[in-house]
Amino acid sequence: MCNLYRMTKNASEVAAWFDAVDAAQGANFGAEVYPGYPGLVVAEGAVQAMAWGFPLVLTGKQGQKLKPKPVNNARTDKLGTFFWRQSFERRRCLIPLTAWAEAQGAKGRMTRTWMSLPGVPLFAAAGVWRQSEEWGACYAMVMTDSAGSDAAGVHERMPVLIAPEDHARWLSGPPDEAQALCGPWLGPLVIDPTNEPWARTGGSQPGLF
Fold first, then answer.
1. pTM of the complete model
2. What CATH code would you report for 5-200?
3. Which of 31, 52, 64, 154 has the fewest CB atoms within 10 Å, counting from its CB?
4. How confident is the model at residue 123 (pLDDT cuts 50, 70, 90)?
């Protein structure tokens, strides 16, 4: 699952790339995006800043409500469930990114391996979004089995990447057409293993739902 991605372009660059309106002027977001923190999405024809993750409110042992956890990844085989269905059917978005990371290595010594598209400065992952009482507008990244992709050697799951010619179909096509796009990326990927420690990420569980 993806708990970290990189987005190094500003909102106006993203708007120009996706032929969208820049509605995120002045938004504060980092070049590395973690669950629960703001990132940019393309939704309803505009580039917007939203929180990464749908809030999941858990209950403590005494019945008290705990701090919400960001569910930042949506499995393709769960998009028809109650948690995701309305967002998938009515509120799909594109998540601009320049690379995403997965953890590799022994527990306690995991490092970041970055993946991206060759020769492409910016690309899109499939997302869904909604309004929440806890964080306002929020989004989640759609994840699929990585079998058959270059990413399979790094992690069993990967983001659903949407080719430019399929952007409109993902954003506004019927659910069955959008679901047909939810497969692994079969084109080449750039795999960049690093010595960067994974532990400094700010992501929190549950992450994938």
1. 0.92
2. 3.90.1680.10
3. 64
4. very high
